[in-house]
C-alpha cells in the first residue's frame, strides 16, 4: 500500500517560550497532544523468524520536501550520523538486531499459516549505537516507549518518546508501521541548553523476499519521515513542515 503525504506548510524554526517557561516550537492550528499520550500499540512488530537475528541495513535518502533545516535536524535526532549522508544522499550502512517481543505485550502475537506466533521487535539501542558509532551502554532504553542518548560530537541530550504507534498486521507479502514521536533536545542558538519539543511522524512499509545470490532473507522498505509544528505540547499533524523519503534494504547476516 503506497504511502501518501498531505501538503507541506512552511516552518517557523524559531523556538518560543510558553507561559509555563518551557521552550516550545511555534504552531498554528490543532493537532495531537504530545504531553499526555496513551500508546495505541506497545511496539512495532516484525516477523517471528527475525527473533535473535542480525541484519545489515543499507539506507539511502531519496527526496526532501519542505523546510530543509527542519528535515536535516530531525534526520540527525532520529539517528542520522554523518551529515554527508543527508546532504549528498550517500548510502548509509549499519547493523541492527531483533529481539523477541516481551511476553504479554499487547498485539505481539499473530496468526500465520494457522499457527499463533510471537513477534520480533527492533533492538532500538543497537540501531542507534550502530548508526551513531556510540556504545550501547550510552543509550537508555528503559521502556519500549522512550529512548535517550547523548548525540555526538557535542553530547547533546536527546529523548525520543513514542506517543502514538500503529502496526500493520504481518503477512506473507509484507508489513508496515506508523509512529509519532515527541523529540526533546536542546533549542540551540540564543536559547542554549533549554529543551524544545519537536514532533516527527515515521512511517515504514516492508516487502519480504530472498537474496537471489545467497538465498538469505531480505526486507525492502520505504520510510517517510515528516516534521510538524508544536505549540504548548500540541503537534499540528495535518500540515507537515518537511518530508524525507528513504529507501531501506535489510539483509540477514
Structure notes:
With 253 residues, this protein is mainly beta. The protein has a domain of 177 residues. The two termini are 28 Å apart.
**Average pLDDT across residues?**
85
Shape: globular
Reading the helices and strands in chain order gives EEEEEHHEEEEHEEEEEEEEE
Helix content: under 10%
Report low-confidence residues grouped into runs of 5 or more: 4-29
Main β-sheet, in a few words?
A: 11 strands, antiparallel
Strand-pairing-aware structural class: mainly beta
Proportion of β residues? over 45%
- Helical segment tally? 3
Number of strands: 18
| Rg measurement, Å | 18 Å
Q: What gap, in angstroms, lies between the N and C termini?
A: 28 Å
Question: If strands are numbered along the chain, what order do they take across the biggest sheet?
Answer: 4-9-6-5-18-15-14-13-12-11-10
Quick structural overview:
The protein has 253 residues and is mainly β. It contains three helices and 18 strands. The protein has a domain at 15-44 and 58-91 and 140-252.
Topology at a glance:
Layout: E1 15-17, E2 23-25, E3 32-33, E4 45-46, E5 54-66, H1 68-77, H2 84-87, E6 92-100, E7 109-112, E8 115-118, E9 120-122, H3 124-132, E10 139-143, E11 146-151, E12 156-167, E13 174-186, E14 195-210, E15 217-228, E16 230-231, E17 234-235, E18 242-252
Antiparallel strand pairs: 1-2, 3-17, 4-9, 5-6, 5-18, 6-9, 7-8, 10-11, 11-12, 12-13, 13-14, 14-15, 15-18, 16-17
Which short descriptors sum up this protein?
253 residues, mainly beta, eleven-stranded antiparallel β-sheet, three-stranded antiparallel β-sheet
